[in-house]
Design a protein that fits this description.
Layout: H1 3-21, H2 26-41, H3 55-58, H4 65-71, H5 79-90, H6 95-114, H7 117-128, H8 131-134
Pfam family, one: PRT_C
Keywords: Membrane, Repeat, Transmembrane, Transmembrane helix
Protein name: C2 calcium-dependent membrane targeting
Length: 142
């Protein structure tokens, strides 16, 4: 067992113990990892301009509605598909999308590290569920 493997094992065990002890740090840590992986992959990005989309070559006009429904399915039923999408965002295939995704990953990580998770959950709940019951966004007629 080399020193590099033992360092990785120790780091993994320490990280695991820390996340078990402080579960509020799981989501910010994952978000920070997405940022770190995207920055790391910046070195390996393609220097050539991205290829243009050719609908005839890709047969985009022959796609039926079942394939589109499967592609844009929002249910987390197929984790591999979601993982491939996240990987494509950090691999610099589309530089603008990758820059935005990595910047948002850093912003989300910083916010979630600094703000307690109960405040984030409460804000999310008020924003998503409670806007009508709180009267936010309602126009009053006089």
């Amino acid at each position: 067992m080399g020193s590099e493997e033992s360092n990785q094992n120790v780091t993994g065990k320490v990280l695991h113990m820390m996340l078990v002890r402080f579960p509020d740090l799981i989501i910010p840590t994952l978000s920070f990892y997405v940022f770190a992986i995207g920055v790391w992959n910046y070195r390996f990005r393609s220097r050539a301009p991205p290829p243009h989309f050719d609908p005839k070559l890709s047969l985009a006009k022959t796609i039926d509605t079942n394939e589109l429904d499967e592609e844009f399915d929002l249910k987390p039923c197929d984790i591999a598909t979601q993982g491939e999408r996240a990987q494509a965002l950090v691999m610099w295939r589309d530089p603008r999308a990758t820059e935005i995704f990595i910047a948002m990953g850093l912003v989300v990580a910083i916010i979630l590290y600094l703000v307690p998770s109960k405040i984030v959950a409460m804000t999310f709940g008020f924003t998503i569920c409670g806007t009508r019951s709180l009267g936010i966004g309602r126009r009053h007629r006089y």
